[in-house]
Amino acid sequence: MSETTPVIPINARPRLPRGVRLIHNEAHGGWVLLAPERLFKADAIAAEILKRCTGDATVDSIVDELASTYSAPRERILADVSALLKGLAEKKLLELEVQ
Amino acid sequence: MTEDSGLGSNRTRDPQTAREVEAPSPPHPIGMLAELTHRCPLGCPYCSNPLALDARGSELDTQTWARVFREAAALGVLHVHLSGGEPAARRDLVEIMAAAHESGLYTNLITSAVGITTTRLAKLADAGLDHVQISIQDSEAVSADQIAHYQGAFARKKELAAAIVRLKIPLTVNAVVHRANVDRIGAMVDLAIDLRASRVEIAHVQYYGWALRNRAALMPTAEQTARAIKTVEELRERHHGKIVIDAVAPDYYARFPKPCVGGWGRRSLNVTPAGKVLPCHAAETIPGLEFWSVRDHSLADIWAMSPSFNAFRGTDWMEEPCRSCARRDIDFGGCRCQALAITGNARAADPVCHLSALHGRMASLAAAQKNAPYVYRVFELSE
Q1: Where are the beta strands (DSSP E) in chain B?
Q2: Inter-chain residue contact A39 with B172, CB threshold 8 Å
Q3: Given A4, B101, B146, B205, which residue has the most CB atoms within 10 angstroms?
Q4: Are residues B199 and A40, on separate chains, in Cβ contact within 8 Å?
């Protein structure tokens, strides 16, 4: 388990900060994360993760919910969520509230 | 996720945060530069506005901008960059902001900070402001105000930056670099961090408009440029996770051209204060192009059908060495305005490219440096 230990604390509550928005846009083929002078095309999994970054749910509970919704291995979901959130946090596009 | 550039612009991404993505086909624009006015209290000698500035009396009114924003959103535009001149020179900036936001666009305010009080900022925030980009001219006040040709601008920028951060609005600091300040890139990045910006752009001057007129006075030396590139790499490493550092390359010293505006008529469009729609801000320097206005046509028709947008769209217009080049879909032949300005032929390869027969000219133009006084950008008050 040590290799997949997330750098993002599992009790953190991720939130998209002001100026970062997930939208659905037909012209651009689906989910797009809008950010300052950047945009990211979000695939279905990324969009499901980002929709839950509201500051309410912990990383742990987001992973639980997605693992159960998609009947997917929890380790796999945890790795996806951690990678996505870490990348966004490094770009200053995510807030992580740790209690 | 895959990343795309908001304005399809000339920036090189901080490589630790960058990934490329193919444009959708047929192309939908993603960014629109809305030049709300050419009026500006500052006089930066590298201003990207044209030498012939639009007069106040010719500016589009609030309702027309609102319609343009709705048409832009319907066309697929995601980011609108409210710029100028100084957008705060528009008395109706808050109404314009609200209209942009209501149409669903992500709003980026590009400002010198002069003319935006804390009260006005709060109104802009309520109206839907998503992000602010503040320009800085240097890392310290005396030099910065001298380059901006405006006493007190530097202090004002710091005040507004603090107010923006208090409202939790993300802030980008844009630092235009040239011979007089290029040795202080580290200090400018430190300033951006102190101001709590999440992002800083180190933008080497692009030589169009007023900058082209001031080229000899602005051009950094080859040694300064090489050092600047290395400095940016080191700063990215040092500040990774703290601030994102994007850069606009010093292209006179480059071997490959920039993919100018992400390809002509492919990613972005630019609406002038008077309503002309341009594929890029310098496009009017190319003779013979016919530009359509939002006063006469819908944005969708202009994007799809206007002669200027189709003039250099795709790759059919290319000459050699671009036509058969493996990089033609990467850099799109570089910049048409620069090709024209340097070679006299807008269809030629951008001479920044080492494959251009005229590439040698870039080095000799870059070497033609002269410590002449700047020709400051001035807005003629006689309208």
Answers
A1: 2-5, 11-12, 31-35, 79-83, 106-111, 131-136, 171-177, 199-204, 244-248, 268-271, 277-278
A2: no
A3: B205
A4: no
